[in-house]
Amino acid sequence: MGIVSAVISLLLGIPFVAALIAPTYRRSQSPYAKAGEVGPLPKEQPVSLRFQFQGTDAFLRQTETHEVWVVKHSDSDLTVFSPICTHLGCHYDWLPSANEFICPCHNSYFSITGQVLAGPAPRPLDTLPYRIENGVLYVKWERFQAGIPEKILV
Amino acid sequence: MWAPVKTWINDRLPVSAVVRWGLEEDIPGGSSFAYVFGSVNLILFLLLAVTGVLQLFYYVPTTDHAYESVMYLRLQVPFGWLIHGLHYWCAQAFVVMVGVHMAQVFIWGAYKNPRQVTWITGVLLLLLVAAMAFAGPLLAWDQLGYWAAEVGTSIAGTVPWIGAFLQRFTRGGETMGQQTLSRFFILHVVILPALFFAFIVIHLAAFRQSGSAGPWEAEKRKQAGRFWPDQAYRDILIASLVIIILAGLCVFWRAPITGVADPLGRSITPKPAWSFLFLYQTLKVFKGSWEAVGTVGVPLALILLLFFLPFYDRNPERNPRKRPIALAGGTALVVLILVLTVLGQLSQPAAQGASTGPGSPKGVPLEHGARVEPNAVAEPNKSTAILSEKVASAGVQKGRELYRSQGCAACHKIDGQGGTTGPDLSNEGNKGRSADWLATQIRNPKANSATSIMPPYSSLGQEQVENLVAYLLSLRAGGGQTAGEQEKAKPVARGVESRQLPASGRQGPPGEAATLIGGTKLGHALFADYCRSCHGLEGTGKVPNPGSEKGIVPGLNPVDPTLSSDDPSVFAVNIDRIIQHGSVPKGPQPAIYMPAYGDGMTLTQPQIAAIEAYILGLNGVDRAKIIQPGMSPERFFLWTIVAFGVICVTAVIPFLIKK
Q1: Beta strand A32-37 with A47-57: parallel, antiparallel or unpaired?
Q2: What pLDDT, on a 0 to 100 scale, did the predictor assign at position B450?
């Protein structure tokens, strides 16, 4: 009797648990989305750019809007930062008067190169892959695990 | 008549026995108002269950409809405001009353042998309350709930070893989204309530096993009272009082409206619900590699401390005066939690722009300057082989266009036209300013003068700034030809400009924001950043707009009567089309025009909704007006008071006097 119950439980239990866990590992692939023209961007000064692409969230098809911080070094060399603080996932902001990025949640400060200057952030700001084609910047949206010293895709 | 039915039922189902078991309970030392909290919590739980189920008749657990369905319930379903409000306020009160209940049990020493299981199940119920309070707010998919859950699940991600899995499992994927909402929904309305019911039954069964603890003095315990009716009346009296207070809160202090969740929102400082603030504040103490201590260690230690209390505090003495260490420890813990909660509530981000928090004093619009507005980006000059003189004059011309498109005239005056907030620029070319100084002033005004209130236009490109500087240096009032005269001599420019301007406004349909109910507090902060420079403080300023038919930027307080409406949704649609698609004022050459904030993605839809709620508020229209109250909330409250009075006078008071 006990063995029969155990077999039935396993037979049903494994698929049931798998249904809850497996979908969470499905990685949504974002395209390289057009974020704007490189030409007008100021040099060595962070600018926040927004861009959109068609994404899917489970069964919902929707327009995703994302934001990145871009620092232009030259027309072919940029740094594209994810706008998400590496500490606990808040959105940080650029403070021109201090020349620093600051996250309002737990007061993490970052330099213009993304290095941690102060606060609890465990690693520098995350950079995102980008391409420049004919002077137009395309950014690939990615998310990284917050709160740990390593930059790992979630 | 009744007796045979009763017998028939009781022969088949032990109804009377169960009722007797529930009511016939000895209370050593007699009934007391000190013992009402358990019953009050039970009643609060039932009220939460009932209002929760009622909300489910209207609630839709998807990210694209959750917020709207909650707002529909709150504003358009008769008594929806009461159902939602009671659920909200009961949830807050529940946390407080559970704390009071535990404190009472602790002081009375009622957790000691043989009541360990009652205490342990109580601690488990406390954890369930915490889990409910964590999962619940996200369901509304509003700013507060979204960011609390975002931070909360991120904290889960910092747990050693299993953090990544835990975060992924609670979110249902890598980021917050539909799966997160589904998971929190199932937790909040199915799994946790089921566990709640089960543990309440176990808690009560364990409680009845050893009975009420009563007073700590042995002599006082000798005379026993009864639960029914002595204690029950006291319980009901206090529970009614609590419900009246909750109804009053629903009527006079509505649950906050913070606007739909905005994942892009840098405009909100995420904080957890007040009941978790002490943990949030603790987190700030532990940094770097110590972080796991704050995220996992402290909460776990606290739970274990509570859970095993009856096992490490085995002294049978119950009199609080003879338990100084226990009492001191308990008091210290409560004081620590209260202090941390207050600190967490008061804590503000160290530095902030106007956009990160409402009411920031300086009002330096960080975002405004730092964002590239697609409309504002001028076409790069493509011509290559032009004589240097022509380049210079083309630069002046482009600078003048930029001066207009960036809205500089809102604050600065040239040749008698423009605002007065900033200095008159008519004679800027004769002031001896260097080109570098002017360029810095445009990009980062604070570098020239720390007290400058000018917003930094850091989004302008190198060439654009050079053009603006060239234009400014060409302004020489009274010394030869002014730029204004040059302008009149060159009507050619108009063709270029009209190509850059957006098509005359109000052409497109209203955007998503028109149907979203935004929060006025956030709207106020955003207004200061994006709208104030042209529409004036609180929308009243008459900022000059030379070249337009009216000569000023339209005020928003009061707004153009053709846009206004008493119906908040109509009002919102009217102004939404302008905010989404922009608008060019009538007139020969308007210096300032309204940018397309929606089309240009300068503002997100939730942000536009917030600004609309604020503008409606300026015009005396509540965006979150209750459209179908069922009964006026104030009148409802009056009826509650009357009902309570009748109950007191007819039943409770005579009973207590008789005693």
Answers
A1: unpaired
A2: 63
